[in-house]
Amino acid sequence: MAGSMGPWILVATLLSVVNASLLLVLTVIWVRNYRTFGSEMTAGLAVFGGTMILENLLAIYFFFSSGMLYVDSPSVQQSVATLRALQTVALVFLTYVTAK
């Protein structure tokens, strides 16, 4: 299906890879902080990060396996890419503030 993947779904896929990478960095920091401080908040953040990594990896899987769902609708493809871009912006700021 990747051959029929539209350009916007390719962008969404790349953004999901970036998002999963940022979330991995965040989750490692949160797990380290949990081990240091034992705070329930950091444990919750680590679980949140792990869940969001899974969500992004599943999105990548569905983009490749179900690409045909988006092929006929460039506006849907663009909407999916836009949502992924918004998540990327949020994660860039969160990663910056957390790593600081």
Describe the structure.
The chain has one domain. It is mostly helical. The longest helix is centred in the N-terminal third of the chain and has 31 residues. The model has no long low-confidence stretch (mean pLDDT 91). 83% of the residues lie in helices and 0% in strands. The termini are far apart. InterPro entries: DUF8036.
Summarize the structure.
The chain crosses the membrane at residues 6-31, 43-64, 76-97. The protein has one domain (17-88).
The count of domains is 1
By DSSP, the count of extended strands is 0
Give the H and E element order: HHH
CA gyration radius, whole angstroms: 16 Å
Distance between the termini: 41 Å
What is the number of helical segments per DSSP (H or I, 4+ residues)?
Answer: 3
- In terms of DSSP E residues, the strand content is under 5%
Q: Report the structural category.
A: mainly alpha
- Which consecutive residue ranges, at least 5 long each, have pLDDT under 50? none
Shape: elongated
The major beta sheet can be summarized as: none
Query: Percentage of helical residues?
Result: over 70%
Q: What's the rounded overall pLDDT mean?
A: 91
SSE map:
Elements: H1 7-37, H2 40-65, H3 74-99
Helix pairs in contact: 1-2, 1-3
List its salient traits.
100 residues, mainly alpha, 3 helices, elongated
